[in-house]
UniProtKB/TrEMBL annotation:
InterPro entries the UniProt entry points to: Phytyl_CoA_dOase-like
Key word Metal-binding present: yes
Record protein name field: Phytanoyl-CoA dioxygenase domain-containing protein 1
Taxonomic path: Eukaryota, Metazoa, Ecdysozoa, Nematoda, Chromadorea
Presence of keyword Metal-binding: yes
Source organism, top-level taxon: Eukaryota
Listed SUPFAM superfamilies: Clavaminate synthase-like (SSF51197)
Gene3D superfamilies reported in the protein's UniProt record: q2cbj1_9rhob like domain
Species assigned in the record: Acrobeloides nanus
Entry-linked Pfam families: PhyH (PF05721)
Keywords carried by this UniProt record: Iron, Metal-binding
A GO MF label: metal ion binding
Cofactor entry: Fe cation
Family listed: Belongs to the PhyH family. PHYHD1 subfamily.
Length: 178
């Protein structure tokens, strides 16, 4: 999977100037027990200024259907999303306090506006960092695995120091063009 998320072709086609992979994960949505992913906006967790510099890349390892928990989107929701709800580092040194907290008011989205996006195995879905999306539980006898990663275009932008993933002196986000 490292080679897949390290390929800069998508970023080049989208004219990103300094793309870096800031987060990746393999999603195991197992048959009959794979849980839902609640509605969210990726930039809630991975904020940049300006906010239009984050792109999610979601790859269907298995076919994604209505029954096994395909993605659902609110079309156009990225166009006027003010992003007042955030998941940030708490900076607490108290071991009894959480390391991460939500701040702001959680938005309420109109359930009627969602559309399902079933896709065949091997499909690649690009997700604007401000678009509202979710997935339902896997109610089928088939798995629905996916590999996803997020690309941040660091050109003329600022990565929030309150985001949960951060570069360190010994770890830098992989640059797709180097």
């Amino acid at each position: 999977m490292n080679g897949l998320s390290g390929d800069g072709n998508i970023a080049r086609q989208l004219e990103m100037k300094q793309p870096q992979v800031v987060q990746s994960m393999y999603i195991f949505k197992q048959p009959n027990i794979g849980d839902e992913v609640c509605e969210h906006v990726d930039s809630t967790y991975l904020l940049m200024e300006p906010t239009n510099k984050l792109l999610g890349v979601w790859i269907a390892i298995d076919e994604a259907t209505l029954e096994n928990g395909c993605l659902w989107f609110i079309p156009g929701s990225h166009k006027n999303n003010e992003l007042n709800y955030r998941f940030i580092r708490s900076n607490s040194t108290d071991p009894n306090e959480p390391l991460m907290i939500y701040i702001g008011e959680k938005p309420v989205y109109d359930a009627e506006k969602y559309i399902p996006v079933p896709v065949p195995r091997g499909s690649l879905v690009l997700i604007n960092g401000l678009v509202v999306h979710k997935s339902e539980k896997n109610l089928s006898n088939l798995s629905r695995h996916a590999y996803t990663f997020h690309i941040a275009d660091k050109y003329e932008s600022v990565w929030s120091p309150l985001n949960w993933p951060q570069e360190t002196p010994t770890y830098k986000f992989p640059d797709l063009y180097e």
